[in-house]
Design goal:
This protein is of the alpha/beta class. The chain is built from 13 helices and 20 strands. It folds into 2 domains: about 5-65 and about 135-205 and about 315-390, FAD/NAD(P)-binding domain (3-Layer(bba) Sandwich), CATH 3.50.50.60; about 65-130 and about 210-310, 2-Layer Sandwich (D-Amino Acid Oxidase, Chain A, domain 2). About 30% of the residues lie in helices and about 20% in strands. The structure holds flavin-adenine dinucleotide. Flavin-adenine dinucleotide binds near residues 50, 63, 68 and 348.
């Protein structure tokens, strides 16, 4: 069943009746692969449809973000371990590194280094193509799952039920019938337009214009850098600039620089280094000025020795959960449902959490109300990530969006939490556990934490007054 036969060739024109127990997943990115994995527990046949050839580990055309740093939050890693036992070990065998966050890694929040301490969080450091290749290999080895190349072009059915997807493979467009069609085609999903064509309601969109620019490169590692730490994250401060460096397979630093509101990092080596020099801590600048870029992104000459850019205009959340009705037989997940600001490294984890939500919904029944139940349940996990990410975006005064009293109070509190985390390991531990989606944001409001954040143990009371200087680094 795992073949590269064209789906279009497998269906005859005009096919409309579905075989019982068939699900089709559109898009074989992280969300699509995870969805296929859980669907295989409930459907006799699951077909993944991907427009890219899936036989290379190099960054694919369909996921241009894959050349940029992809931090996997610990919550996402544990879900992946649950779905693919041995996942972390398999990546480690491929050269990925692991370290306990804040013990073997360092973080700067508002320019202040978070106090080193045990967090119980495992940071897994690999490039996105390697992460995806392991998930893909394990998914395609799952009984009942097959795949084909093809591009989804639209849906067949009506406002009450989606019965088939239109697939093209270069030789024509043909329908592919299924009991359930899952759209995991990423943030560029055309699901709203497809549904409108069927006469179904299209979801409202929430978005925040952040005009984020990324630039990324690989650099060789040398002994002793960062005092042996495997990663450094410098979160975007008030100026909207930040960056990260993680030690990935092949003993390379994967470095990403980022700037908001049009302040994008340059892609020429000198400009890239100059931008890094303006970050709140010198760590990343030291790494990238220690060596020439290592290149090695892909097979083409253009991909070698380059610093690659990426533009991300706005996080987008499509409110399927608020529609009065949704057709049976079709649901949307992953970035197609909600694409959060990549600065907070939540996307793959939210996709993994949605896969677990889908699994729970399927266990409760795969009837007509499955899509509505899924959107309602998924909105709980999406809400947490969206609020954390949108709240942080709105801390930047240049980002326009609804700043409610709650947003302003939360951001004032978070600013104090950053300062307290610099001095107090209990705060830095909890902050990191919340940022890794392992604990709920409310953990930072627990009375013992609130006391530490609002009235610090170094004697300061009222507004936090820690000196805004970064610690010396390796
Ligand atoms: C610059 C950047 C950096 C990021 N960094 C992080 C990070 O540090 N940590 C993190 O967790 N997340 C990060 N993300 C988010 C992460 O990439 C996604 O959230 C995650 O991959 C889940 O996406 P997805 O599978 O829904 O979509 P995608 O990964 O975009 O995959 C969609 C798939 O659908 C295919 N496709 C599209 N249209 C069609 C069609 N019509 N027919 C068939 N196939 C189609 C595409 O080829 C692709 O394979 C980042 C995103 C960006 C943009």
């Amino acid at each position: 069943m795992n073949s590269d036969r064209s789906a279009a060739q497998e269906s005859s024109p005009g096919e409309s009746a579905s075989e019982p127990g068939r699900a089709v997943v559109l898009g074989a990115g992280i969300a699509g692969l995870l969805a296929a994995r859980v669907l295989s527990e409930h459907f006799a046949e699951v077909l993944l449809v991907e427009r890219d050839p899936l036989d290379a580990d190099d960054p694919r055309r369909g996921v241009p973000q894959a050349r940029h740093l992809h931090g996997l939050l610990d919550r996402g890693r544990t879900v992946l371990e649950q779905l693919y036992p041995g996942f972390t070990a398999e990546l480690t065998e491929l050269g990925a590194g692991t370290a306990e966050a804040l013990v073997g890694t360092r973080w700067y929040l508002s320019g202040l280094r978070a106090a080193p301490t045990s967090t119980g969080l495992t940071s897994l450091m690999a490039t996105r193509p390697v992460l995806e290749s392991v998930i893909r290999r394990r998914t395609l080895a799952t009984p009942g799952i097959g795949w084909c190349t093809g591009t989804a072009r639209g849906l067949l059915g009506d406002a009450g039920e989606v019965t088939a997807v239109l697939l093209s493979d270069g030789s024509g467009i043909r329908p592919r019938a299924a009991d359930l069609i899952v759209d995991a085609t990423g943030r560029g999903s055309r699901a709203p337009q497809w549904l409108a064509t069927l006469g179904a309601c299209a979801p409202a969109e929430e978005r925040l214009e952040v005009d984020l620019g990324y630039a990324s490169a690989l650099f060789p590692c040398a002994d002793g850098q960062l005092d042996g730490h495997r990663s450094v994250i410098i979160s975007t401060g008030a100026g909207g600039r930040g960056g990260g460096a993680i030690r990935v397979e092949g003993d390379r630093w994967h470095v990403t620089l980022a700037g908001m509101l049009g302040d994008h990092p340059p892609t020429d080596p000198a400009g890239f280094a100059d931008f890094a020099a303006t970050l709140a801590a010198p760590d990343i600048h030291r790494l990238i000025t220690a060596a020439e870029p290592a290149g090695g992104w892909g097979r083409t000459a253009r991909d070698q020795h380059t610093i690659v850019p990426h533009k991300f205009r706005a996080p987008v959340r499509r409110r399927f959960d608020r529609l009065p009705s949704v057709p049976r037989g079709f649901l949307v997940l992953g970035d197609a449902l909600c694409s959060v600001n990549p600065l907070y490294a939540q996307g793959m984890t939210v996709a993994a959490q949605q896969a677990l939500v889908l699994r729970d919904c399927l266990t409760a029944g795969a009837g007509a109300d499955l899509p509505a139940r899924f959107y309602t349940a998924a909105s709980d996990v999406v809400d947490v990530a969206w609020r954390l990410s949108a709240g942080s975006d709105l801390a930047n005064p240049g980002v326009t969006g609804p700043r409610t009293l709650r947003t302003r109070l939360t951001n004032a509190y978070v600013a104090r939490a950053h300062r307290a985390a610099h001095l107090d390991p209990v705060v830095s531990r909890t902050f990191l556990r919340v940022a890794n989606l392992v604990e709920p944001p409310a953990a930072l409001l627990r009375p013992d934490l609130a006391r530490r954040i609002l009235w610090r143990r170094d004697g300061g009371t009222g507004p936090a007054d820690a000196p805004a200087v970064a610690e010396p680094t390796g």
